[in-house]
Every structure is written in C-alpha cells, then in structure tokens.
Amino acid sequence: MDELERVASILWEEVYSELDYAYVRKWIEESGWPFSAYNFWFVLAVDGKIAGVICWNIFDRYGSKVILNVAWMAIAGEYQGKGYGTALWKHSLEQVIQYLANLEEKVALIMVQVDEENNKARSFFRKVLVQPIEVIIHNVWGENNGVVFLFMPLS
Ligand SMILES: CC(C)(COP(=O)(O)OP(=O)(O)OC[C@H]1O[C@@H](n2cnc3c(N)ncnc32)[C@H](O)[C@@H]1OP(=O)(O)O)[C@@H](O)C(=O)NCCC(=O)NCCS
After folding, report:
1. DSSP states of 86-148 as a string?
2. How far does the centroid of ligand 1 lie from the alpha carbon of residue 125, in Å?
3. Domain interval for residue 140
4. Which of 20, 50, 95, 109 is geometrically suited to a Cys-Cys bond with 6, CB 3.0 to 4.6 A?
C-alpha cells in the first residue's frame, strides 16, 4: 500500500467512515499532498508502518505572522492512547515552525476544530494546546452536532 492510500485509510476509518473512501482520498490529493504552499503533511511510522498522520494548514498570513490550523489529524485505532499523537503533534509542529522561521515568518496563533461529541480529541487538543481558548458552536453539522474551536496564541 502506498503512503497516500495508507493515510487515506487511516483518516477514513478514524474520522470519515460515513463518507466514501474515494472521496476522502481525492480530498487529500487535492490538498497538494504531501506538501504545498499551504498544507504540510506529516506521518508517524511505528516499525516501518504508518500509524498516524497530521496535516498543518496555513489558515492566514499578515506580514510576517501566520495563523496555523490543523486540517487533519488521526492515529490508527490500534496505536491510539500510547502517546503517538502527542509525539506526532510536537515533532511536526517543531518542523513547521522551523520551516516558517526560514521564511522569516512566525506562528502567531494555532487553531484546531473538532466535533463537539468527539471527547477523546477534545481532551487531546486541550492537553497539547495548553489552556486554549475554546468556542463551541452548536448544531453546525446537524442537530446536536456542533463544532468546538480551540485557539492558542503564541507570544
Ligand atoms: C485524538 C487522537 C489524535 C489522539 O492521539 P493519541 O495518540 O490517541 O493520544 P495520546 O496517546 O498522545 O494522548 C494524549 C492525550 O490525549 C487524551 N486522550 C487520549 N486518549 C484518550 C481517551 N481514550 N479518552 C480521553 N482522552 C484521551 C488525553 O488527554 C491524553 O493525555 P494523558 O495520556 O495524559 O491522559 C487520536 O485518538 C485519534 O486519532 N482519534 C480519532 C481521530 C480524531 O478524532 N482526530 C481528531 C479530530 S479530526
């Protein structure tokens, strides 16, 4: 299985199983996989097998300041709860910050959005973002199916 197929199947299984697999795969390809001016994909491998994925997105820019957004993130089911998500988050964020620093750009704000009912991811992002500002918008995708936005300004 090539990398794109493996990443698409992790995201499909963990986040988008209600959608078509082909649709999810196309969506990733159209993001500029694995790297574009706005989207940076990272994978985490365990024993040579891709176990997790994150895609950082440049949401906005003003002068030398950047707002970073997490466009996609998932750890394959059997690898969850073992610290891999935290490791992938930290390592990929360090690399994005370094990449932007080389362009003389600085991350001013990190933002993440997650479904209201996704308690595991909410607790994950609350932990890695360190006392984030949280905004909940109810009934976005449907009744009782809202979205939580978490923001962490960086000084
Ligand atoms: C959310 C996700 C990325 C976290 O990755 P992970 O490797 O499982 O997380 P870690 O093992 O690094 O855990 C870090 C923290 O996340 C939270 N967490 C992890 N598993 C949890 C669970 N089952 N229940 C509640 N909180 C949990 C905890 O705060 C944990 O800190 P702790 O170990 O000190 O308690 C992963 O569970 C996942 O891929 N979920 C499905 C896809 C998804 O929801 N993606 C994000 C939204 S698009």
Report:
1. HHHHHHHHHHHHHHHHHTT-EEEEEEEEEETT-HHHHHHHHHHHTS-EEEEEEEEEETTEEEE
2. 8
3. 3-153
4. 50
